[in-house]
Design brief:
The chain is α+β, with helices and mostly antiparallel strands and about 425 residues long. Among the domains are: about 15-170, no CATH class; about 180-195 and about 280-330 and about 345-420. About 65% of the residues lie in helices and about 10% in strands. It has helices at about 1-15, 20-40, 45-50, 60-95, 100-105, 110-130, 145-170, 175-195, 225-235, 265-270, 285-300, 305-325, 350-365, 365-385, 390-410, 415-420, and strands at about 210, 215-220, 240, 245-250, 255, 275, 330-335, 340-345. The strands form 2 sheets. It has a 5-stranded mixed β-sheet, covered by helices on one side. The chain has a 3-stranded antiparallel β-sheet with strand order 4-2-6, with no helix packed on it. A hairpin with a 2-residue loop joins strand 7 (about 330-335) and strand 8.
């Protein structure tokens, strides 16, 4: 029962990433508030306030109708204008930077809340307008409710001004990369602080029992703690062989077990693997490396030709790799100092190769970019621990590959000598 509750909580958390979640929630709240106000009007709140605080009540039917009608038309126009502008800016971001950035821009919760507030106010104004009696006297008019409509409209105008400011900041590439970096940094620091791994603690998994995935999609999350509890209860060990963040096809091996498992246990374990059709940096820090690399590559394309953005992207990549060096290539879930689950991640060698391969292919002809990449690699080499020969060899291989490609692409002898002097 507890596992099912955790499963439902994870599904609810995924639901909050949907672009329609917050607008729908606020629209429902606006609908509920409308009927609260109608209930108070039925109890005579407008009549009471008209006698005690007349300034708080709109007591003219035509004025109320005109205000509410104007608010409804104005808000619909504002909403259409705002999100038409968003679509234009998203199209620009996709063309100039990378289509991979769009999910992060679309899922901005502040903009979703503003949209929801617009919708809630429109619904409120519509229902209050319908509630006004055609031939009602001043006591039948929901004057206090109309006052709230005015307040909501003022807040909508303020939200619109904020939205214009926010979207203009959001679309700037430096702010986009900074946001990606900060999300990825938080995720990696969390993993570094909480990961435990000892190669000697886990047995060889070569001949273990294999169990396949029944779903396909991007592996978003794996609840290692819950799987470890199941493994302990079954007196076995689990090795998660798929890498989080990658696309998993049906019938791919999902995990292996030291002992054979029954169908009920297999079902319980697979429930703790979350699949999705999209990727999120909050769950997979590797996506940050991909997105920033694509920004750098797109900036160096002939159609964009923006080496300044590429240089900034390499600075962010340098900081991300500096954090990634501190993380192990595998991690384990322990209970009472006994490892029950082992999970693989994208190892450092594959990650830096994928990033450098793209950058070498599209930026090897530019002396300034090659210089920046060499500075990044030497910086990483300087912060790697001396006894970590594996990482040092990986970085040295990337430096040599970059020099080989630069020698073939750079034709100017003076530029080539400058690059070699750095090497």
């Amino acid at each position: 029962m507890k596992d099912k509750g955790l499963f439902l909580l994870r599904k609810l958390y995924r639901l909050t990433d949907n672009i329609a979640f917050y607008p729908s929630l606020l629209a429902v709240l606006g609908f509920i508030f409308t009927y609260i106000m109608i209930y108070l009007e039925e109890k005579g709140i407008s009549k009471y306030l008209l006698e005690t605080f007349p300034a708080l009540v709109i007591n003219n039917t035509e004025t109320a109708r005109s205000l509410l009608t104007t608010f409804i038309g104005g808000l619909i126009s504002i909403m259409v204008f705002s999100f038409s502008m968003v679509m234009i800016l998203l199209n620009q971001a996709s063309s100039n930077f990378s289509p991979r950035l769009l999910p992060g821009l679309i899922s901005n919760r502040r903009h979703q809340v503003i949209l929801g507030f617009y919708i809630a106010t429109i619904l409120y104004c519509i229902f209050i307008l319908v509630y006004i009696e055609p031939n009602g006297d001043k006591y039948q008019l929901p004057g206090f409710a109309v006052l709230f409509a005015i307040l909501f409209m003022v807040n909508c105008l303020a939200a619109f001004i904020y939205f214009i400011h926010s979207i203009s900041q959001e679309i700037q590439i430096n702010n986009i990369m900074d946001k990606i970096f900060n999300i990825s940094k938080r995720r990696m620091l969390y993993l570094i602080d909480h990961e435990k791994y000892s190669e000697d603690d886990f047995p060889d998994t070569k001949n273990w029992h294999k169990y396949n995935s029944e779903k396909s999609g991007y592996l978003q999350n794996v609840s290692l703690e819950n799987i470890a509890k199941i493994a302990k209860a079954q007196d076995t060990k689990i090795d998660v062989v798929v890498i989080k963040g990658l696309f998993i096809s049906e019938k791919n091996t999902l995990f292996t077990s030291e002992t054979a498992l029954d169908d009920d246990t297999i079902k319980k374990i697979t429930e703790h693997f979350d699949f999705s059709k999209s990727e999120l940096i909050e769950d997979n820090y590797v996506l940050a490396f991909k997105q920033i690399t694509e920004v750098a590559v797109k900036a160096m394309s002939p159609g964009i030709n923006d080496p300044g953005t590429a240089l900034n992207a390499i600075d962010y990549l340098s900081q991300l790799f500096s954090l990634r060096i501190q993380k192990n290539d595998k991690s384990q879930a322990y209970i009472d100092d006994i490892p029950y689950v082992s999970v693989a991640t994208v190892n450092f060698k594959v990650l830096i190769f994928q990033v450098m391969a793209e950058l070498r292919t599209y930026c090897k002809h530019d002396v300034v970019i090659v210089e920046k990449l060499l500075i990044m690699l030497y910086h990483l080499k300087g912060i790697v621990k001396v006894d970590n020969k594996k990482y040092l060899e990986i970085i040295n291989d990337e430096i040599e590959s970059l020099i080989v490609d630069a020698e073939k692409a750079i034709t100017n002898v003076r530029d080539l000598e400058y690059v070699k002097s750095i090497y």
